[in-house]
Protein 1
Amino acid sequence: MNSTSQVEKSYDDLGTGRRWFLLILASIGSSIIYAPAYLKAVFYDPLLLALNVTNTELGAVFGAYALAALICYLPSGILADKIRMRTLSTAGFITTAILTFVYAALPSIEVLFAIFILMGITTILIWWGVRYKLVRLVSKEDEYPKRIGLSYGIYGVAGLAIGFISTGIVAAVGENLNLGVTIYLGFLGVVLFTLGVLSWLFIPKFKGEIKTSSRFDLSEFTIAFRNPVVWLAAISLFFVYFFYTGVTYTTPYLTGVLGASLVVTTIIANIRNYGITLLSGPIFGLIANKFKPSLVIASGSIVFIICLLALTFLPTTAATVVVAATLIVFLGFVANGSFGIISAQLTEGRVPLHYFGAATGILSVIGFLPDTFSSIWFGAIMDAQADASGVVAAGAFHEIFFILMASAALAALSSCVLYVYVKRKNAKLDALEAAASDEASDESGSTEQ
């Protein structure tokens, strides 16, 4: 392997099996590399008890990760054009694995902050740009849309598989939650380290993957920053992402208020986070192809409000667990689907290709801002309404749910504003193009005379 690793490869130089392997590697990796940082999404109560922290402290630790990630989004794209995929993928996986092993030791709150800030660097600055570029490198240009869609499917399968392993661990350790969290994080660390080794062994040095002459040109970001479509799409993403991530608080609601078992709750959380990704992305994508993405997002946001309202006023008894679980999975379906087609609003608004990358960078920075404060905010709400034993009152979750409903309403509003703006803008552009065409025809006619 080492004798051939120095030779640059193109798409045609790779066999079908190698291309498929790299697609699967990038897709599985994109699911697992973020699992340690986002562990609270499916393992909330065990993590809270194992780390011996409050809801607010757990939210603050995740907020530190989100802030580090936010700073790293834009430069990660630049790094992906300056450093080979093989190096970035290997470094991202292995450094995240090392941090995960330290995390598995259930350290102090101070060490946790350091781990999560460093994870923001290893998973975003180093690895964020790997998935999309590696998928592009193992695809022909006309294959990319199909391959990236397939990549999302593999992402969901990998997340679901890892999630069910976590469920098995929970069931096996019983009341010893500290051991369960440690075993699960240790398992994730081993998988990440293995992915790092596989990256070094099998990702080739691609021809043309490094642009040594490329410079960080701020003019593209300036142009994108002035485009109202970019801003409206970013605002829409902000509110969609807010309720997309906020739906994870239905996990502690199931156990703490409705009395569902930890095993059942973990299964539902994994289906909500990963299982429905197999369906929601393709279905919402197909609908958005027939209708405007902004209208689909607005409709999805309204459906989200209706379902969450039903969950909020559902009687808080063990007998309603099945109904609540069904609503929670459907909430995940709508939230995932809406989130998955957000970037399509840029194409709906005819954002030019030459600064499309800059536009998506701005979208990421503004759209993912909720990660920096929502966990802290919701954690404080839960702690303020918890009894001496740490049991959170139903009213705290209802307050969170109403905040999420307000966010969904604002997501629907901003998407509708984008739709109206784009419709008027496109109508003006079409009118100008028609006028220019008529004028050219008139000039041609007069010349012939």
Protein 2
Amino acid sequence: MIQHLTYPDNFMEEQETTISVIAGLADDPLMKAVIVNQAVPGTTEAFRRIKEARPDIICLAGEAHEDPAVIASAADLVSNNDFVSRGYLIINTAHELGCDTFVHISFPRHLSMETMSRRLAIMQRTCEELGMEFVSVSAPDPTSDVGIAGAQQYILEQTPTWIEQYGPNTAFFCTNDAHTEPLLRQLINLGAGYFIEADLPSPLMGYPGALGVQLDDVSGDFPAILKRVEDTVVERGGAGRFGTWAYSYGYTVSAGLGQHAINVIRGESELLNRADIMKAFAKYSPGASWNGANYVNADTGVGLRNYFLVYQDTYVMGKGYMHVTEVEVPEWAYTVK
């Protein structure tokens, strides 16, 4: 029923290959839906080619890198992490845990994306509202000449300096997955600093490598994965300082959008019905609560019916769920840019 393909790791340099891989799925006469997660640059063009050849195929994008209006013009449904709500909630959670400083680590390519630049602006405003210091630092882009190894080495070298400069009650956030593992490793080793959750949260994101946790025997069992990671974090003295989502965001989006497509094709769900989308996501994340809203343009106030923003409750190791899905996000967060 399901065909699985991968696009090139260096998707920015091999964009035409990425487009061809995705668009080529329309050649299969049995194909009914195409899900791309993460929907990297080139996905919009690939979806346009699919629609030209097979307008009947449902095109779904998970975690789109292209501007919302662009990807929404070609995709039938887009699902992104709720960068608006999380811009407020991540800082609010850090404040609740006793943090007085927040360090945001990124680079120009990511900050050129509306989703990340808006979240940065919301984080900065939230820090001002809560009386916290906000620091934005630039780190090497893993897709640049230094590669992943060079980018990770930079984080390893800089983290002790950041802790010394900003203090032990500093929370850190990085927009790139490759930066996460070395950051976590250093924060654990230093016994200082906080990490609320990753850009795309998961107990698999950074923690196993940073902590040396073996998970082969519990592969695919997220409650067991979370428990093993949490036990190790607590054992290493990190209780109350390190968080995640209980179920991998990447996994849940791929599986959830796939399930939603199946439900729609079978006539059991409506494509743009938020409750139906949440039902599909919940199937793969039992016990974890979700929330979210439609994307709204900060300039015009106009929303996109086919662009959904979602987020899962934050789970802090040694403390439990933070119930962030119940926290009211202030109205100003939706207009900050």
